[in-house]
Design goal:
This protein is an alpha+beta fold. The chain has one domain: 3-Layer(aba) Sandwich (Aminopeptidase), CATH 3.40.630. Helices cover 28% and strands 20% of the residues. The protein has helices spanning 13-26, 43-51, and strands at residues 33-39, 55-56, 70-76. It is globular.
Amino acid sequence: MPAVGRAGRGKGAGEGLVRACAERARAIEGVNRLLLSTRARSPAAHRIHERLGFVRTPERDWSPVPTVPLLAYALELRVLDR
């Protein structure tokens, strides 16, 4: 779960982190899907994920503690042979 501190927000750091995560995941043999979590109250992060091709995956939402709901977003990295 990448995160950007308040001072770094709005400067492209979040998008850079998400792009770096996707590039790293693509480089790993056998990794076909990347799942990222974001706070429910982070609409800017939701927009970044969606702009980069991530899809909301509500069945993977979770909370590390009851007061911190996290939303899951998935990015298909490779088309699987069927």
